[in-house]
Amino acid sequence: MRVAVVGAGIIGVTTAYELSTDGHEVTVFERCASVAAEGSFANAGVIAPGYVTPWAAPGMPLKVLKHLFARHAPVRFGAGTLAATPWLWRFVRACGSRTHVANRTRMQALAQLSRDRLADLSTTLRLEYEQASGYLVLMRTPLALAQAQPGIALLRELGVAFEVVDAARCHTIEPALHPGAPLYAAIHLPRDGVGNCRQFAHLMKAHAQALGARFWFGHQVHRLTPGQGVELEVSGPDSAQGLRSESFDAVVVCAGSEAGALLKPLGISLPLLPVYGYSVTAPVRQIDGIPDSGPRSALMDERYKVAISRLGQRIRIAGSAEIGGRPGDLRAAALHTLYKVLEDWFPGAADLAKAQHWKGARPMLPDGPPVIGPSGAPGVWLNLGHGSSGWALSCGSARVLADLVGGRAAPIDVAGLGIERLR
User: Fold this and answer.
1) Per-residue model confidence (pLDDT) at position 81
2) N or C end of the chain: smaller count of CB under 10 Å?
3) Within the chain, which residues score under 70 in pLDDT?
4) CA-to-CA distance for 238 and 218, rounded, in angstroms?
């Protein structure tokens, strides 16, 4: 079929590749100048299926309220929060135990598939991008370890390879950890790790193009008209040329937070909310006679929900969840938390004079899992709403979507991943 993909973030690029491997004639429309230019640009890069879980969980609303006014709160509310009230209400309703368990099971099955597909692609295509194995979830106190017991039980139930290690073992795994940091224990996941999402996206774009996929950058899709032939109204970089119409057998919407406006005229109302994350990326400090003082792979500060990742010769600190807010408004408090966590664990490891700040929108649905499959409108398919787990879920989501478009059974149970659960 002739298939259009709207959006070239990590979800759109992997979707374009998988559809191309199935023999479809794929055209990708992206409003930015390159792939992975927005939400996929500078994320943490962590790939840890055991920790892919819905935010909507029992007790979460109370936790958010408890830390609402804390100096280093992991969740913050920005300007325009009032408009997010319907989303927040659905989020609270999804925090029930039964709903949480069902959504967690779906997300983790998808995450496991995605990690396996990522490994397969990396090997068969001989992809070279910044990556490292191993993931440490750092806990500062005995209480933190006690509170982590339900999560540890879940990892055991899922068959995830892990071990609980003491502080001494942590320093063996990550020798550059600050010896004076308040470290009690950690969960070590040796099969998980970190990878450069943006580099991977560029590599997948090249491989999709080698299979015949076309990428149109600087092109905005303004309207979809479903039917046996789906019509797209598109504008290009030259505004003087106006809108043009193109027809496809099917279209896959991977447009992230912007998808809602595109789908609403079709009678499709998705409770998508842009939840903003922050990151700081800086070169590893190089000092003659002093060994590398940065992390080897990826770590998570469990208290502040901040990840520290090693990406080649750079360190990335990523975290925060800002509900509401504006894309270009970088809040000093959120950045301060990232700097604090880096200083706690790896003081002096990064050349902060060359640090780059980033804020990106993560398109989140209130209950957690993405929507993958038919939209209900003829010829229109969806692969969106992955939230903060887009990188960790991308390869699996793309494979599932391609199989569904091709009329084949998906490699996992897709019950609960369709749009019907949100109606």
Assistant:
1) 79
2) C
3) 67-68, 240, 289-291
4) 9
What pLDDT was estimated at residue 20?
98
Q: Please state whether beta strands 380-384 and 371-374 pair in parallel, antiparallel, or not at all (unpaired).
A: antiparallel
Three-state SS sequence of 229-249: CEEEEEECCCHHHCEEEEEEC
Burial of 291 (0-12, 13-18, 19+ CB in 10 A): exposed
Tens of pLDDT, residues 62-86: 877 776 677 888 888 877 778 888 9
CA gap 25, 124 in Å, rounded: 22
3-state DSSP of the chain? CEEEEECCCHHHHHHHHHHHHCCCEEEEEECCCCCCCCCCCCCCCEECHHHCCCCCCCCHHHHHHHCCCCCCCCEEECCCHHHHHHHHHHHHHCCCHHHHHHHHHHHHHHHHHHHHHHHHHHHHCCCCCCEEEEEEEEECCHHHHHHCHHHHHHHHHHCCCCEEEEHHHHHHHCCCCCCCCCCCEEEEEEEEEEECHHHHHHHHHHHHHHCCCEEEECCEEEEEECCCCEEEEEECCCHHHCEEEEEECEEEECCHHHHHHHHHHHCCCCCCEEEEEEEEEEEECCCCCCCCCCCCCEEEECCCCEEEEEECCEEEEEEEEEECCCCCCCCHHHHHHHHHHHHHHCCCCECHHHCEEEEEEEEECCCCCCEEEECCCCCEEEEECEHHHHHHHHHHHHHHHHHHHCCCCCCCCCCCCCHHHHC
Q: Whole-prediction pTM value?
A: 0.94
Contact partners, residue 42, CB within 8 Å, separation at least 6: 198, 279, 281, 316, 318, 356, 358, 360
CA dihedral sign of residues 317, 206, 38, 322:
negative
